[in-house]
Each structure stands twice: as C-alpha cells, then as structure tokens.
C-alpha cells in the first residue's frame, strides 16, 4: 500500500528531504509551506506530488509527517497537532537544530494516534529556501534521532528506512545530550563567527581598506555568519542556557589569552596554538570521521576566469557534481589554487584522474 509522507516546511532542509523521499517507490509526498511561491516551485519542479497551504488539511492525509520549519514554528505545529482530529495513525519527526523544547512539546501530545521521534540532520549550508535544496545534501552526514517514551523500535526502523535515500549515518541521542554537543560544535561557533564580522566592521571606520584585505582565513572562519538570521535567532533563543554557559567559559579563556599575549610569552603562545592544531587536525581525519569532511582537491590554475570554467567544464562532462568551489588567494594573471570539494571519495579520485590527464597539477591532503 502507498504510504503518504508530509513535509511541513519546504526550505533548504525540507526540500532536500523531499527530493530524497520522492525517490522511494510507493511513497506519495505532500508538501505544506506558509509561502505560496515555494509550493508553486515544488509542484513545478516535481519535488512533491501535491501541495497544501493548510497544515491540518494536509496532516490528516499523512502516515508520516516531517516538520522542517524554523524551530519555533516546529514547536507551534506540534501544539497544533493536539487539536487536529486524525483518522489514522501518524508518525511525526522533525529536523530542528535544537531538540529540548521540541521534545518537550512532543511528550505533551495527548493523541493516542501520534508518535514522535525527534530528528536532526547534521548537514546544511549557509543558504536557505527551496531553491537551495539538493538531493545529496545529507550524504555521509550524521542524522541524529531521538526516540520518545512512546516510540517503538519498529517505528524507529520505519523512519530510518524513509530517510535511507539520503545516505546519512544515524546516531541515537538523548535531546539534552544533543543540545549540549551542538551548542559546542555548531551554535557557539556561529555566534563567534558573527562577532568576528562585527569586530571587522567596527574597525572599518578607522581602516576603510579592511574588506579588501580580508583573506582566506577570515573568509573561512566567518562563512557561517552569512547564514539565515531568522533560523539562527531561533536556535540561539532555544539553546540560550547552554550558549550562555559557553560564553562564560569563553570569556574566562579570552582573559587568560589576553594575559598570555600581554606577557609576550612566545613559548606558551606557541604551545597554545600547537595544542589547537593537533586537536583540529585529528578532527578532520576521515578515519575518525568526527567532522563531516568533504573530499577536497587542490588544483593549481593560472589565469581566471578562463581556467575556472575549463576545470568545471571537464568535471561536468563526466557528470561529477562539485559540492563547493573556493578560489584561494588568486590575483589576476598569477598562479592560484582552486579548492574543489566533493561529497564522496569516488568523485574526488575520478576528478583528480581527469584533471591530471588534462595536465593540471592537483593535490589531495591525507
Ligand atoms: N540550514 C541548515 O543548515 C540546517 C537547518 N536545520 C533545521 O531545519 C529547519 C529548517 O531550516 P532551513 O530549511 O534551513 O530553513 P529555510 O528558511 O530554508 O526553510 C524554512 C521553510 O519553512 C517555511 N515556513 C516558515 N514558517 C512556516 C509556517 N508557519 N508554516 C509552514 N512553513 C513555514 C518557510 O517558508 C521555508 O520554506 C530549522 O528548524 C533548522 O534548525 C537543520 C540542519 C541544518
Ligand atoms: O553551514 C554549515 O557549515 C553548517 O554547519 C550547517 C548546519 C547548520 C545548522 C545545523 O543544525 C546543522 C548544520
């Protein structure tokens, strides 16, 4: 029998999930979103089979519903579920970056027909909206699942099967643990990235050339500050206790660093940097897999934009999709380096072979 799956919120994450779930035979995918233009786009591009601008109407038809709106809206939608008369069993999940409030709302659901299992794919981008949705967004990424008291092992397996086309790796976590870990590894770094951008902007009044000097390091560390402010406002708000605790620790560490810098203790400064480097290098190791590391190739190029187009064209001819392209420190007419990122090792190695055959100098970091 056909299973009906509703995705509520068809932005970057909901749209990317829909693209994957649509691949499964015998699944009918419905979409709900507050934006009419998003629903029209989804229909026009075959991302879902049918669209609704009324949550209650759509959810009544569904066997499984994935809530993929901003976190505060997801909490509201869970509360709404309590007041929607359902005629069949409904398995509900979500994709929210903070889990505690969502899981609290889910535990307070009174309907016997609804079972909730929390979810969070640990992958995304700084882009937002349906037009940024990609089918391979979650490949090799961790997908956190948080079962509830009511959910059964069979329901967990059913959800995993539905998400299996994403090629993610599942990890079961308790919501409190999840929120603490993501505050350290995702939410707090975002706050620091935004604060670094503010600092640069403040200095720009004294040095108008600051933006022109912004080199690779500043761009790398502040990339996430260009993400969706509405989404991150919700994340900071919902995880504010853990963020505040991390800020307090950070302030103490910054004070210690200030003392170290003021003292001019070269050896201690070097030790501090070496310890950070050792830990960071270990995180990136593909064997450990602690960070979702993309498969990068560095390519030497000589003049842009011609060289850029040629490299991309060569890979496109072989249907290889590039996850990210970055030009590292290139100026016109001077040798530069292109960093191409791929989702998997196969694409990385095939691309290297193609580029080498076409006389490009390439390098893969071990
Ligand atoms: N962007 C990212 O990298 C990641 C985001 N997440 C989580 O995924 C969720 C969605 O984020 P994105 O897809 O990035 O955001 P997005 O802004 O791309 O998409 C959100 C969608 O929700 C819709 N929406 C807003 N209010 C609504 C309402 N009242 N009813 C129905 N639809 C509504 C919007 O129209 C939009 O289509 C958030 O909870 C976020 O925490 C999780 C992992 C990664
Ligand atoms: O853009 C990036 O590097 C991200 O880290 C994306 C991301 C944003 C929010 C999440 O909850 C999970 C992943």
UniProtKB/TrEMBL annotation:
EC number: 1.3.1.12
GO molecular function: prephenate dehydrogenase (NAD+) activity
PROSITE patterns tied to this protein: ACT, PDH_ADH
Residue span, Prephenate/arogenate dehydrogenase domain: 3-291
Xref: Pfam families: ACT, PDH_C, PDH_N
Family per record: Belongs to the prephenate/arogenate dehydrogenase family.
Top-level taxonomy: Bacteria, Bacillati, Bacillota, Bacilli, Bacillales
UniProt keyword terms in alphabetical order: Amino-acid biosynthesis, Aromatic amino acid biosynthesis, NAD, Oxidoreductase, Tyrosine biosynthesis
Recorded catalytic activity of this chain's protein: prephenate + NAD(+) = 3-(4-hydroxyphenyl)pyruvate + CO2 + NADH
Biological pathway: Amino-acid biosynthesis; L-tyrosine biosynthesis; (4-hydroxyphenyl)pyruvate from prephenate (NAD(+) route): step 1/1
Domain ACT, residue spans: 296-366
Protein's recorded name: Prephenate dehydrogenase
């Amino acid at each position: 029998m056909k299973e009906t799956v509703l995705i509520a919120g068809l932005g970057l994450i909901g749209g990317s999930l829909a693209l994957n779930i649509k691949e499964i035979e015998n699944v009918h995918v419905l979409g709900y979103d507050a934006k009419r233009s998003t629903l029209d786009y989804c229909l026009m591009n075959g991302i879902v089979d049918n669209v609704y601008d009324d949550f209650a109407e759509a959810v009544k038809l569904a066997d499984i519903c994935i809530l993929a709106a901003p976190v505060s809206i997801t909490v509201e939608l869970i509360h709404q579920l309590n007041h929607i008369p359902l005629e069949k069993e409904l398995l509900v999940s979500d994709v929210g970056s903070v889990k505690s409030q969502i899981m609290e709302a889910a535990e307070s659901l009174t309907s016997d027909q609804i079972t909730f299992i929390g979810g969070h794919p640990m992958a995304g981008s700084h882009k937002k909206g349906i037009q940024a949705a990609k089918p391979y967004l979650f490949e090799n990424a961790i997908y956190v699942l948080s079962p509830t008291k009511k959910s059964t092992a069979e329901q967990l397996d059913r959800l995993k099967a539905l998400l299996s086309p994403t090629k993610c790796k599942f990890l079961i976590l308790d919501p409190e643990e999840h929120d603490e870990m993501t505050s350290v590894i995702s939410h707090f770094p975002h706050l620091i990235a935004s604060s670094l951008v503010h600092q640069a902007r403040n200095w720009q009044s004294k040095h108008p050339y600051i933006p022109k000097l912004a080199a690779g390091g500043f761009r790398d560390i502040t990339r996430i500050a260009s993400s969706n402010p509405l989404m991150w406002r919700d994340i900071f708000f919902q995880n504010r206790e853990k963020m505040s605790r991390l800020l307090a620790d950070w302030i103490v560490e910054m004070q210690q660093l200030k003392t170290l810098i003021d003292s001019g203790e070269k050896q201690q400064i070097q030790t501090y940097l070496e310890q950070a480097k050792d830990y960071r290098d270990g995180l990136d190791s593909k064997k450990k897999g602690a960070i979702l590391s993309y498969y990068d190739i560095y390519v030497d190029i000589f003049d842009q934009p011609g060289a850029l187009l040629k490299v991309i064209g060569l890979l496109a001819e072989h249907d290889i999709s590039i996850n990210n392209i970055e030009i590292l420190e290139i100026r016109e007419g001077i040798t530069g380096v292109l960093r191409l990122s791929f989702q998997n090792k196969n694409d990385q190695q095939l691309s290297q072979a193609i580029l080498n055959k076409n006389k490009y100098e390439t390098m893969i970091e071990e």
